[in-house]
Amino acid sequence: MPETNGVPPGTLVMLVLRVLQSGSLHGYAIAQRIHTITNDVLQVEEGSLYPALQRILLKGWAKAEWGISETNRRVRFYRLTPAGKAQLASEMDDYERINAAIRAVLRTA
Amino acid sequence: MGELWRRIWYFLNRSRFERELRDEMAAHRAMMPASGARFGNELRLREESSDVWGWAWFDRLRQDVRFAVRLLVRAPLFTLTAVAVLSLGVGINLAAFQVFDAVALSWLPVPSPDQLVKVEHRSPGSHTTSFSYPAFAFYRDKASAFSSAFALAYGSVTIGDDETHHVRGEFVSANYFIDLGARPLAGRLLADADERPDAAPVVVLAERVWRARFGGDPALVGNTLRVNGHPFTVAGIVPATFVGIRDDSTAVWMPAMQHRVAFEGSDKLNDWSDGGAVRFYARLKNGLSIEAAEAALAPLPAALRAVQPASVAEGEWLDLMPAGRYMPLEASNVAGLALVGALITLVLVTACMNLGLLVLSRALGRDREFSIRLSVGATRGRLVRQLLTEHLVLGLVGAAAGCVVAAWATRLFAVATEMPAGIAPHFNGRSVIAAAALAVITSLLFGFTPALQTARPSASRHLRLRSVLIGAQVAAASVLLIVSGLLVRGVTRAVNVPLGFDYRQTVSVDPDLFAHGVKAGEAQAFWSVMDERARQLPGVANAAVVTLPPFGNRVTINRDNTVIYRVTPSYFDTLRIPLRRGRIFSADERRVRLVSESLARRKWPGQDPLGQAYGDAIVVGIVGDARTVRIGDGSATEAYEPIEPADLPMSVMVVRATGAPSAVAGQLMDLARSLNTALSPSTQLLAEALDSRVNDTRQIALVAAVLGLCALALAVVGLAGMVAFSVSQRLREIGVRVALGARPSHVLRAIGRQFAWPVAGGAIAGSALAALVGTVLSRELYGVGQLDPIAHGGALLLFAVVAGFAAVPSVRRALRVDPAQTLRHE
Questions:
Q1: Which of A67, B36, B617, B626 has an alpha carbon within 20 to 30 A of B332's alpha carbon?
Q2: According to the model, what pLDDT value does residue B453 have?
């Protein structure tokens, strides 16, 4: 993956699902939210955001509805489905486990 | 909604989802800060997003197809030639498949055809396909494995007032039509009541005969029709769509019970000794396999042997064969079918090679296009895929056109070979699959190597590939042409070359004594009077009695392919078979034989055949070769023995006339009938019999000739196209040569050289293959050798001449090259 500002490979879907957990958002807002929460550390490229969103839709982890944005534009809001919540939980578990393992290596080796 | 369904949903509503994606991205861009020009190429982003749906391959395929169609439309001459060539190749193969499908794969149009079996009997030393009627009745009544059974007994009969022409009659069990689900066209078909001993004689008529002989007169039903001169009531008409079990050439059907009426004196129904009386068919009980049924039937022959020891052999068992198809695939016909299939495939091969050449030449002209596409980033794989798509499109269009050709060809074939209406070839699921398969196979065959060649151009490989393609199609076309030449030569020889005996002046008389239940003693009396009176008739030169009717289907043959005739001594003079050495036997001699010259030469090479032991007999004379039954078989030989009383019920008389044989035929018939009024004798002019006998081979030859001509046309189109293309490519070179003083002969040689080797190689390979096929076909060749110089030479000459003429325009163009003009042209 070409993220120069570094969304770690394979975590983008999890991050998107996570920000959607607190409420439905449109594409631009998802990118903005990740950007601000991480204090400008993580930058989501649009080129990977939309394929990821399409994958999330296809897998049935979120549903999309057209609505009006805060700036009065017609945008598509993504809302997490129960399947999406389950997917998020399992991805977070995996991530925690691997992270803990990596940390263990870094501490002791 | 699962993921798969969502994918399909996306596919079906692609344009809407594309639009939504576009709007969404547009909104995103609008919301981005002005400095953020990072959104990148929108089109590409959109493509990457929609690729997630998994339909990218489809879009690319659609692109390729659209591009291919546009290219094909822009080159109409190429496209038309290609489609024409393909439609011929695919059409003929599809037609052949449909015919094969109709006769060998499709079920007969009867209820539950999968339950139908033909019953035969085998013992360790014999295999018999027929039964005596009482044996059939015994098995029918005892066999619990059968839900029903029926017998068919063949009888040659006259119908109506015409007592000279015989038609095929079948005496059948009364449940025959019911069991096969036939519906009458008029009146009724046979019913169980017709099988009672006291039932009145009824007959049902084939629609074909009803229309041809009686003008389709509805009043015939319920009226009287004379069969062999005996009155029968016409019960009904059998529609032409009825196929029965290979029963489509039958003219009339009667209940088996009525055999004794049609053949006065016949005791067929009670005669245990007549093992050839009936063909035995049965229906297996629901769900029973052939193996299980055979096992259930196993004890029956032994039970019959206990009461009728003479009619059942030791260790005999009943052998069941599937009978639900018109021509079941059996070990005996698979080889022949494979040969025909291979020959027909050659037409397709020729077409493919031809197209390969066309495509290859066209690819040369597209060099620029391909190098541009490669330089702007297309991969070679993508180019090959594009080319294969083009060929697939061409293949599909060709296959569609081939379906039209096939429909036309099968109709023609069905008419020419008188295929029964009930099993006429038609389009079904299997044909569609076959057509699609042919399209894919052809497009891969003709497209694959040229596609590779295009992707990685190499001049030397190009030339090699072209030589192979030319050679292969010349070879395939030569095989077909030579084989059809061999068959045509065989037919001509059968008609024109002396068979070793006089058939033009000869009539055969068959009183069918056996069918009328005439036994040996009675037959002897009949023939001695018949012989004496026949000789006294005006216009009769000589007469003889023989067991095997000339040009008939009956044959007694031993292991070394020698036909054994039993004859009266006058046979040789009657048929004008010359005595070469020794003497002719007399009528009451025993254990003596005459042999034909070829047999003598084969069996006792370099020795004197006279006085040699042959079986349990002594050779007393050598006569000329005279093929009267195995006429097509060049390797068959003949041996003769004196006729014995036991042979006489099954024998026929041959009579040579001094004048027109047709004048004698009527007198002979009257004579036979006057000796025994119960008889319904038939006569046949041998010249006519030969003609109908040769007809089968003539049909094969005709089909082969059509195939050969198609292959010729294809190969010549390909070759002429190649020459034209090569000349147009080399105009400049030719101009230079002429400017440097080349004569027309030099120019010709320069053009011819590149074609000479592939064509010569192809012709030699074709000749060799055709000789191989000829060896297999030798039975149909009437003694024409598989290396017959006229067939081989003629076919190749024909090929050369036609190809030569087709190349004339291009060659003239080459010879007329004006060096000044071509050189300036650059």
A1: B626
A2: 67
